[in-house]
Amino acid sequence: MTSPHRSPTPARPESSAAGTDANTFLVAGTRVSAPALAPGLHVVATPIGNLGDVTLRALETLAGADVIACEDTRMSRRLTERYGITTPLVPYHDHNGASARPKLLARLAAGHRIALISDAGTPLVSDPGFKLVVEAAEAGHTVHPVPGASALLAALVAAGLPTDCFLFDGFLPPKSGQRRNRLTALASVPATLVFYETGPRLAESLADLADRLGPRKAAVCRELTKAYEEVRRGDLATLAAHYGQAEAPRGEIVLVVGPPLEEAAGDATVDEALARALKDATLKDAVAAVTAMTGRPKREVYARALALSEGRAEDKAADD
């Protein structure tokens, strides 16, 4: 457990920000002093698009920290300049993590306050902050969560799909074969699935989702909280057809896929699904995926899978 945000703290080190604006921020044109910040690593959520979504506590933390560790200083400076925050920004990302982490950990050991942010949303959700948090915690430093915006949760609540149980799987593999194998493994999960995706890969990913998961309901959530926000809903095949004919969309994309359908499918549907799954999956994995997809009893699906496999073997022998 981390210590409470407002717990008594030792005297703060001198801020490296210059001028009288240090440790302050702007709210509606009024400069506000940030309260004393506890030492440690503060994991701060930032807006995913609309800068007005920042929380008051996030502003207090960013203004009161000794340094802000961020993925891209250019992106983060848009937020700090908007709210008049002068705390120094230092880059921390996948490419410099090995060299930057020891320096940040040394600051923590000296009693500094470090704010960790990502380019957008909540750090550690598909970003490089995880290793820093792990090493900081292992070294005995307090890790303070400062919650706020998350593209994952924003998409989930806008999609209109079940939210009581969901699984977030980050970015799908870029190659189709690996992506299909991953989706086959996820097909039996009895929950809503959430993925991040890029515009250029969206159509192919939707086609693979439709092929591996069947006629599930889904939503493509794009540019959430921004001027061109879009949520397109439909079954996976319909969405795949739409984006397959359209120009690759721009912006940040979150895919939300509903859980397996409850209605049991007919024999023809089961056979079609098995035929697709058996192309590049083991019998066991194909049965698990199709059982989850169709709602049919596992024993029945297994029997039909065996029949299909034996039929293919006989056809191959006849051809030889």
TrEMBL record:
One MF annotation (Gene Ontology) recorded for this entry: rRNA (cytosine-2'-O-)-methyltransferase activity
Keyword terms, alphabetized: Cytoplasm, Methyltransferase, rRNA processing, S-adenosyl-L-methionine, Transferase
Tetrapyrrole methylase domain location: 41-239
Enzyme Commission (EC) number: 2.1.1.198
Annotated RsmI HTH domain residues: 265-308
Keyword Glycoprotein: no
Compartments where located: Cytoplasm
Highest taxon of the lineage: Bacteria
SUPFAM superfamilies noted in UniProt: Tetrapyrrole methylase (SSF53790)
Record's catalysed reaction(s): cytidine(1402) in 16S rRNA + S-adenosyl-L-methionine = 2'-O-methylcytidine(1402) in 16S rRNA + S-adenosyl-L-homocysteine + H(+)
PANTHER family, per the entry: RIBOSOMAL RNA SMALL SUBUNIT METHYLTRANSFERASE I (PTHR46111)
Family per record: Belongs to the methyltransferase superfamily. RsmI family.
Role: Catalyzes the 2'-O-methylation of the ribose of cytidine 1402 (C1402) in 16S rRNA.
UniProt protein name: Ribosomal RNA small subunit methyltransferase I
Gene behind the chain: rsmI
